[in-house]
Amino acid sequence: MRRGSHSAGNRPRSRSLLGGVIGVLGELLLTAGALMLLFLVWQLWWTDVIADREQDGIVAELDQQWGEVDQQIAPRQDGPPPVPDTLGDTMVWGTMHVPEFDRERVPLAEGVSLEKVLNVKGVGHYPETALPGQVGNFSVAGHRNTYGRPFEDIARLEDGDAIVIETADAFYVYEVTESLVVMPDAVEVIAPAPGQPDVEPTEAMLTLTACHPMYSARERYIVHAEFAYWTDRADGIPEALADQEEG
């Protein structure tokens, strides 16, 4: 009788201990879930807020330095385009206009560092590639989601769509020729002759690179474009931006 009474007295104590453990685990899971939710809000929303503010400020500062551009349509130039000064690693030296994108203008900086360029300044130029208007492959990278998502709408681009680079002196107009999806190690897409690393380039090309699919870095979404013409910034905007400015 004494032994049975002792066992019966332990059962409530064991149940109480088990209940306490379950309660603590439940609280830990709820805390972990809340932290995960906060991280997702920061990653998917707040980084955009901060990056948009930073990049809008950069564009406004460039407009002050360069002066306002006349909204009349500038004539196409026949001679070779001026070679822009890239100003050094991580420095912003231009902007990119894509009329088909919801966000139509973003800063363009030198380098593709995540922390110093892509996460804060917008689009980054691969340093070993050509510059706007030059024969070769002017190649750039940008985020498709988070940090301002300058290339969020990259998959919307179709053959013939315009991509315009603006610098202090000129507008460089490219027209889309091809879109494709590749693996991250397919570096030949930014070769001087895109896709043909052993071939000497004969054309001025532009390549956009971004992660694919959305919210993943498993692959890369690539857009190639061919140089069409350039205009002097002092003369106004290129025809490719006329509809954008009217909108």
TrEMBL record:
<feature type="transmembrane region" description="Helical">
    <location>
        <begin position="21"/>
        <end position="46"/>
    </location>
</feature>
<keyword id="KW-1133">Transmembrane helix</keyword>
<protein>
    <submittedName>
        <fullName>Sortase</fullName>
    </submittedName>
</protein>
<keyword id="KW-0472">Membrane</keyword>
<feature type="active site" description="Acyl-thioester intermediate">
    <location>
        <position position="211"/>
    </location>
</feature>
<dbReference type="InterPro" id="IPR053465">
    <property type="entry name" value="Sortase_Class_E"/>
</dbReference>
<dbReference type="GO" id="GO:0016787">
    <property type="term" value="F:hydrolase activity"/>
</dbReference>
<dbReference type="Pfam" id="PF04203">
    <property type="entry name" value="Sortase"/>
</dbReference>
<dbReference type="InterPro" id="IPR042003">
    <property type="entry name" value="Sortase_E"/>
</dbReference>
<feature type="active site" description="Proton donor/acceptor">
    <location>
        <position position="143"/>
    </location>
</feature>
<dbReference type="InterPro" id="IPR023365">
    <property type="entry name" value="Sortase_dom-sf"/>
</dbReference>
<keyword id="KW-0378">Hydrolase</keyword>
<keyword id="KW-0812">Transmembrane</keyword>
<dbReference type="InterPro" id="IPR005754">
    <property type="entry name" value="Sortase"/>
</dbReference>
